[in-house]
């Protein structure tokens, strides 16, 4: 597959703004491994091969295990995730699939996340979920191909 356009070049200011958001997110108290699991799961849901590939690799660099990476699509059934990670993944799925629920993100999902994260970290998670959804939509729209292994 070949990209339809180089949106990073054609919308350089927009890309810089997105990277500034990423810089903010990475500086928050939310663990990097949790952020990468969230980004990976959202990218799986959105069918973004570019982002799935990138965030699986980034998660590995952050110390994530193969077992947890392989099972993140089935995190509810897998015993490898903490309660905090489960709350973040549930929030990520609900916010990504917002059109599937007329009430938006269910209260029980929100309340569980709020039980595990302080307000600042919860806000950072919301921003991270919004950002990866935006990245997915950019990459899927312009058909950014996944990088070759080792690239």
Main pleated-sheet profile: none
- Sum up the overall morphology in one term: globular
Number of strands: 0
Q: List SSEs in N-to-C order.
A: HHHHHHHH
For the CA atoms, what is the radius of gyration?
A: 15 Å
- Count of DSSP-assigned helices: 8
Q: What fraction of the residues are assigned to beta strands by DSSP?
A: under 5%
Polypeptide structure, described:
- The structure is a single chain.
- With 151 residues, the chain is mainly α.
- Helix content is 67%, strand content 0%.
- It has helices spanning 7-10, 12-26, 32-46, 49-61, 66-71, 83-96, 107-116, 119-142.
- The longest helix is centred in the C-terminal third of the chain and has 24 residues, at 119-142.
- It has eight helices and no strands.
- It has one domain (31-142): AhpD-like (Up-down Bundle), CATH 1.20.1290.10.
- The radius of gyration is 15 Å and the shape is globular.
- The two termini are 16 Å apart.
- This is Carboxymuconolactone decarboxylase family protein.
- Residues 17-94 form the Carboxymuconolactone decarboxylase-like domain.
- GO terms for molecular function: peroxiredoxin activity.
Layout of SSEs?
Layout: H1 7-10, H2 12-26, H3 32-46, H4 49-61, H5 66-71, H6 83-96, H7 107-116, H8 119-142
Helix pairs in contact: 2-8, 3-4, 3-6, 3-8, 6-7, 6-8
List keywords for this structure.
AhpD-like; globular; 151 residues
Short note summarizing the structure:
By secondary structure, the protein is an all-alpha fold. It is built from 8 helices and no strands.
